[in-house]
Amino acid sequence: VYSKEGAQDKDNSDYKIHLDYINITALFRYNSRGFFVGIGPQLGVLGSAKVKYMGNSDDIKDDLKSTNIAAAIAAGYELPNGLGFYARYNLGLVNIGSESGDDIKTTGINIGLRFSLNPEKSGKDPKKD
To answer: Which CA distances in Å does 7 have to 28, 51, 55?
Structure first.
């Protein structure tokens, strides 16, 4: 999944970081009557990284590690027709800064729609709905 992420300095609102990741998440899900919760690992591969400050933009991809590992926690609901809604929280587990003094970890919230092509096998028990 393509993810556009960012950060802003608490003390200086003109300093913004823009990160582009390709994330692969494997969730272990528990399903009950259309509702689900899940937890699992997420691997992110950095596509691009830029810092913007006072109208200037600099590439900082070489200053960051190329991969990120995070933990993901999700919850959602799937309708009988396969359409679902979810929210997911991602917590970075590793320092993505390449310098020894850096301590940069990511966090993120995703809200989205999903569609199951085979709702009967998505973990729901249609007889209980």
So the answer is: 29, 9, 16
Provide the domain count of the chain.
Answer: 1
**CATH number of the structural domain spanning residue 46:** 2.40.160
Q: Angle 82-23-76 (CA atoms, 0-180°, nearest 5)?
A: 30
Per-10-residue mean pLDDT of the chain, 129 residues long, equals 81 83 95 95 96 91 94 96 94 86 84 84 53
Task: Let me know: does 95 contact 52? Beta carbons within 8 Å.
Answer: no
pTM of the predicted structure, to 2 decimals = 0.76
- The domain of 88 spans 2-128
Query: How far is Cα 83 from Cα 55, in angstroms, rounded to an integer?
Result: 42
